[in-house]
Amino acid sequence: MARSVFARPVAPRANWRRRYVAWLVLLDVLAALAASRTVVTLLADADAGFWDQRVLGNVSSFSLAAFVGVPVGWLILLVASGAYDQRALGLGTEELKRVARASLAMAAAVSFLALGFKKDLSRATVAAIIVCLLLYTLVVRFAARVVLRRIRRTGRASQKVLLVGRLVDALALHEVVTRNYGAGLHPIAIHLPHHPRPGERVNAPVPVYVGWDLVPLVQQLGADTIAVCGPASLESYELRKLAWQLEGTGLNLVVVPQVTDVTGPRIHVRPIEGLPLLNVDEPTISGLSLLAKSVLDRVTALVGLVLLSPVLFAIALAIKINDPGPVMFRQTRIGHEGRAFKVWKFRTMYTDAEQRLATLKDRNESDGLLFKMKDDPRVTPIGRHLRALSLDELPQLINVLRGQMSLVGPRPLPTEDDDYRGDVRRRLLVRPGITGLWQISGRSDLTWDDAVRLDLHYVDNWSLVYDLAILWKTASVVLARRGAY
């Protein structure tokens, strides 16, 4: 008997998602209360002479509005901005963008209400409320992300996914999502569109099904998401029919496009006569954003060199005491548009390291253009500690200040310009960086192909927000000493 379109078996909703959103609501309320407390304290401080004295004279009424109106209004604006949408939570920059949009809406709302009720709030007061709201909310959301990632590392708090498509496409997606557990996708099975050919072996890390009705299979497996992998997985009418079948079931449908390694603002969906067209813009490797990146790099490098000068001096002294020879190591690297430059690093190897390299070539653990050994005998004792914490890279702030490098970008390699051939040459379209996507994704533990893929992904999708996210993750990767040798 055909199933009625009005009777849908509903999939059980993920309890972890409801709990996570509930915790976010509580944390956001606490952040709003903390922001209000900060501003009220400043207003009540007799030494805060720059605050509007008319506000100081009515602190009690302002406190009532701050501790009741601000938290309630902040939650309403966060909801309106989609800051609790499950698709934006826990990964990427979209959640942070929505919080930032809510803060702008809060500024407009506070100003409008002050004007409507003829309340004289100083600009400093409004600015303090908005800055504190944004800062405290981002802090608690970053903390929530850290906790969520640790939970997901154990396999919990993730979407259970049925992969639908050709085996090669399903296995490719399985590899990507299992490598990045923070994405919150946990593949539990694969469904093939066709039976394997006679004699063809099917090897997969999860159970493989063929010829099932997808919705009953998902519900039997206890999954909550169907991921259609690759363009040949389902015909267009089959995909539309599947979307209809999922209506009212609570199941999620994810379609993996044929276009890979392209994300963010470069992708736009433009529907025409019911046909969704995926617009892919060309990479932005010039213009005003690149100028802003260059200015930010140089200013940060200058400030960093000044603030870190005691640390740099202490490291230089330790190197000199540990092993006679120069403190700095300078080597020719290939940079932006194939231009060679001398990179600055603290010396971490013995002075005869280059001469000893020939005897170690057969022990190379890298499959690309670099020589890598976990227990390289040429590295000094102090050098091992410097490499583990990436402190040997700090002098490269000089290269950043001179415009030869950037804070974030593909790592400059000690090779010749002729070694960059084919797709690898795209790494040279941007300035090399002190840190990059390669460094926060595994560093020396990655294969050469994975490192190149990550670098090209960065070149094709870079933005200032992306740079800030990479810098934030770099700190945790360095402190964990992952892949550093």
TrEMBL record:
Residues 293-479 form the Bacterial sugar transferase domain. Signal peptide: none annotated. It is an enzyme of class 2 (transferase). Its EC number is 2.7.8.-. InterPro entries: Bact_transf, EPS_sugar_tfrase. Its main location: membrane. Pfam families: Bac_transf (PF02397). It is found in: Membrane. Keywords: Membrane, Transferase, Transmembrane, Transmembrane helix. It is a multi-pass membrane protein. The chain crosses the membrane at residues 20-40, 60-79, 99-117, 123-144, 299-319. GO terms for molecular function: transferase activity. Belongs to the bacterial sugar transferase family. NCBIfam families: EPS_sugtrans (TIGR03025). This is Sugar transferase.
